[in-house]
Design a protein that fits this description.
Strand content: 15-25%
Number of domains: 2
Order of helices and strands: EHEHEHEHHEEEEHEHEEHHHE
Shape: elongated
Number of helices: 10
Helix content: 25-40%
Radius of gyration: 21 Å
Distance between the termini: 53 Å
Strand order of the largest sheet: 1-2-3
Bound molecules: glutamic acid
Oligomer: single chain
Largest sheet: 3 strands, parallel
CATH superfamily of the largest domain: HUPs
CATH class of the largest domain: Alpha Beta
Length: 298
């Protein structure tokens, strides 16, 4: 099987400099280790018409290249259902009828692990199950056999995090991200996952699920996010943060690329040039504060 890294954007809008920086890092990690680099559009949720085209255009403009065609999650339903069926056959799933509010109320009970589903629907009796089925559609949850799981991360070292009975299929029938990402990475031969460190807390759930499905656990590298002046994750409202906005403000894509490369202690120029100097051990471990500097007027 091929060895590959990937970038997996959600097509909810244009990429901002934080997304582009993560994409560049994922590309550098993959290419510096002789891996292929794949692009997967995570369009199960939050897809906006036209966003994928804009994202691919901007990735290409910044110099990120990928191998083969783009994979879209909405075309992969049968693969996800096949994995769910395997879990079901092993008795590792159950139906859940809880609303968001019910979960919040139950999860705020004393001693409940932070952010974990409290297991309300784990052991419903037959009559209760039939009754609940008659009033609401169910989500499908994993019947987890552990409360936590440990992963190795290139930048964070050993990381242990909560594993709860997380959702595999939502009650509207849409495959949950945690299931899709595990199935896709394994099926695409992705053995290196480089992404924003906001996803580190979900990683023990994903690695545990991979182990249940007898799928290999990839190498993880969770890279620091780009933040605004207040230390909050960068967002569209933070001003000129997309290539289009920056170009309008007089900052060409080459300049954006140089700033992004400088933020990870790499020389400006092409990504191929940066590759020669790339060393994951020298990556900054702190979030990077995006400061908009206007282009100097001639
Ligand atoms: N689609 C996710 C996002 O854009 C990334 C998921 C991943 O890299 O595993 O936040």
């Amino acid at each position: 099987m091929t060895s590959a890294g990937r970038f997996a954007p959600s097509p909810s809008g244009e990429l901002h400099v934080g997304n582009l920086r993560t994409a560049i890092l994922a590309w550098l990690f993959a290419r510096s280790t002789g891996r292929k680099f794949l692009l997967r559009v995570e369009d199960l949720d939050r897809a906006r018409a036209g966003a994928e085209t804009e994202q691919l255009r901007d990735l290409a403009a910044i110099g990120v290249t990928w191998d083969g065609g783009v994979v879209r999650q909405t075309a992969r339903g049968p693969l996800y259902e096949e994995a769910i069926a395997r879990l079901e056959q092993s008795g590792l799933t159950y139906e859940c009828f809880c609303t968001r509010r019910e979960i919040q109320e139950a999860a705020s009970a004393p001693h409940a692990p932070q952010g974990a589903y409290p297991g309300t629907c784990r052991n419903l009796g037959r009559a209760e199950l039939e009754f609940k089925r008659s009033i609401r559609p169910s989500a499908l949850r994993l019947r987890a056999g552990v409360a936590e799981f440990t992963v190795q991360d290139v930048l964070h070292g050993e990381f242990t995090g909560v594993v709860d009975d997380f959702v595999l299929r939502r009650n509207d029938g849409v495959t949950a991200y945690n299931l899709a990402v595990v199935v896709d990475d394994a099926e695409q031969g992705i053995d290196q996952v480089v992404r924003g460190d906001d996803l580190l807390p979900s990683t023990p759930r994903q690695a545990y699920l991979a182990s249940l499905l007898n799928m290999p656990i990839p190498e993880y590298a969770h890279v620091p996010l780009v933040v605004n002046h207040d230390g909050a994750r960068l967002a569209k409202r933070d001003g000129a943060v997309t290539l289009r906005d920056l170009a309008k403000a007089g900052i060409p894509v080459e300049e954006v690329r140089s700033r992004l490369l400088a933020s990870v202690a790499l020389p400006g120029g092409s990504l191929e040039q940066a590759l020669a100097a790339f060393d994951p051990r020298r990556l900054p471990r702190e979030p990077w504060v995006w400061t908009f500097k206007a282009a100097s007027t001639p």
